[in-house]
Amino acid sequence: MQAKKNTVEAKKKYQEASRLFPSEEYPNLQLQYIETTMGMLKFKEEQEKKMREKKKPHKPRVPNKKIMRWNC
């Protein structure tokens, strides 16, 4: 699923680059634009992965022992 999403993104970026920089006039700029935008996408994905890994699992709140004694 992720690979399919990446190819769709790559196609969009290629179309956008070919519109902005026609290949006859700017062949190198077109490739540069695609590489940088795809690089940014990969960078964002890596950052999101790191953030997901950093999050600690939710621990249930343990009530204070003193409060538990009062309730008994």
Structure keywords:
72 residues, 3 helices, 0% strand
Description:
- The model has no long low-confidence stretch (mean pLDDT 74).
- The longest helix has 28 residues, at 27-54.
- The chain has 3 helices and no strands.
- It is an all-alpha fold.
- The termini are far apart.
- The chain has helices at 2-20, 27-54, 65-71.
Question: Brief description of this entry?
Answer:
The protein has helices at 2-20, 27-54, 65-71. With 72 residues, it is an all-alpha fold.
The count of domains is 1
Tell me the distance between the termini.
54 Å
Estimated helix fraction = over 70%
Largest sheet: none
Tell me the number of strands.
0
Specify the number of helices.
Answer: 3
Given helix and strand content, the structural type is mainly alpha
Q: List SSEs in N-to-C order.
A: HHH
Mean pLDDT value: 74
Overall morphology: rod-shaped
State the low-pLDDT regions, or none.
Answer: none
Oligomer: single chain
Radius of gyration: 25 Å
Strand content: under 5%
